[in-house]
Design a protein that fits this description.
By secondary structure, the chain is of the alpha/beta class. The protein contains nine helices and eleven strands. The structure holds adenosine-5'-triphosphate.
């Protein structure tokens, strides 16, 4: 029977993906080697089975080959996570998302062919750190090692000024791609738009440029 997704490892991360996908009406096969975890997800996922994902024949028997997207959310056992990913790659799965526990793990997963490697603890740590630096930094999304997108509340120095006045591109090398005002989002902000309190800017740029922009214009003294 064809399933849309399989989630291997039902810890907090894998479990939350499994729940969310199921709530969105997706067909999810939940797999864990721990019986208690599988019981927990029996009524949530379309199907929940006890299995060790490092056993190739078991994964074949479960028909993983026919699943479009497999999420590997095995926790501390990096060896099991890597072995599972290798087996899934050999099975020819189209899309494999794997949770990495550290940078070394991430590097290996990329090398062995995982299409998507996520590092939720590190990413969330970075996002929260930026918000701790200033309440005006609402969100932070890494695009690459050197580029990010930030969502910032207009700082005091920006209020009453237009994008022309601030000339963020020339002064900081960053681009304002959208401005949110209440429920409205303007995805092609005009240079003359005057910024008001509580406006939220979505800005893209190199990390070092974003950092300068934040220091000079976003973080209120
Ligand atoms: P969390 O995701 O909860 O933040 P974590 O990354 O430490 O934390 P664990 O709590 O270790 O994750 O959960 C990983 C899950 O993966 C556990 O439920 C564990 O039983 C399961 N697991 C580990 N190895 C295998 C395996 N080889 N096959 C199937 N499931 C496995």
């Amino acid at each position: 029977m064809k399933r849309d997704y399989a989630v291997i490892g039902l810890g907090r991360f894998g479990g939350s993906i499994c729940k969310e996908l199921s709530e969105e009406g997706m067909d999810v096969l939940a797999i864990d080697k721990n019986e208690d975890k599988v019981n927990e997800y029996k009524n949530i996922a379309s199907h929940a089975v006890i299995a060790d994902s490092t056993d190739e024949s078991t994964l074949k028997e479960l028909g993983l080959k026919n699943i479009d997207h497999v999420i590997v959310a095995i926790g501390d056992n990096i060896q099991a996570s890597i072995l599972t990913t290798v087996i899934l790659t050999d099975l020819g799965i189209n899309m494999i998302t794997v949770k990495a526990n550290n940078d070394y793990h991430e590097k290996i997963l990329n090398k062995i062919g995982a299409q998507q490697v996520v590092h939720p603890e590190r990413d969330m740590g970075k996002r929260i750190a930026h918000n701790i630096i200033s309440n005006n930094i609402l969100d932070y999304l890494e695009l690459s090692d050197e580029h990010s997108i930030v969502e910032v509340k207009a700082g005091k120095k920006m209020l009453g000024k237009s994008l022309v006045d601030l000339d963020i591109r020339a002064n900081y090398g960053c681009n304002v791609v959208a401005i949110k005002r209440g429920d409205d989002i303007n995805v092609s902000p005009s240079a003359e738009d005057t910024l008001k309190a509580n406006d939220v800017l979505i800005v893209i740029g190199a990390d070092k440029d974003i950092s300068r922009f934040e220091k000079h214009l976003v973080i209120d003294e």
